[in-house]
Amino acid sequence: MKSIDYSLYLVLDRSLSRGRSHGDIVAAAVAGGVSCVQLREKQCSTREFLEQARTLISVLRPRGIPLIINDRLDIALAVGADGVHLGQEDLPIDMARRLAGEQMIIGISAETVEHAVAAERAGADYIGISPVFATATKQDHSAPLGLAGIGVIRARTTIPLVGIGGINAANAAAILAAGADGVAVVSAIVAADDPAAAARALRRSCRPAESCR
Q1: What is the arithmetic mean of pLDDT over 115-134?
Q2: Is 138 one of the annotated active-site residues of the chain?
Q3: Record-annotated residues binding 2-[(2R,5Z)-2-carboxy-4-methylthiazol-5(2H)-ylidene]ethyl phosphate (predicted)?
């Protein structure tokens, strides 16, 4: 299994960035303790997506922080990203693996136990379980899993679990204590007045659960 620190996983969202560049937000967030970054772009062209990915690799690679590309395996391969994150309606894991090879990280979104179990069986490297709590960041999601839902999925899977949805410094430790290996945040860092301070607060909140490495 690939050795990746998913403990504090930042998912970028341009609509929440308050006019700041992805590069500036990521540099600040990594300084605050972010351990993994996902570039998610739903509205831009392929060329712009490529340029954003290249910029982030130049920020992250010298710091040893992996870059995961949301949905677009072609972008991930083109820029040499560390991984790709796929949804339930995206390219199947077995096909993605044939194209990406064994070294690329493949993450899968799962909203149910069945999704999570199937993802592990198909060869995913980690599972993004969502939503843990209600969130306005993503509208097309199922009912919140809650802490109990994390425990149920943890009991049925062995690969890393990353919780996402409504996560902040006040509840991150509880998510890790419930069985997740990491917390993924969007607005709690991207929309913060000070992304570095927000990341530091999240990392401090994780430490009581002894799960943020």
Answers
A1: 96
A2: yes
A3: 135-137, 166, 186-187
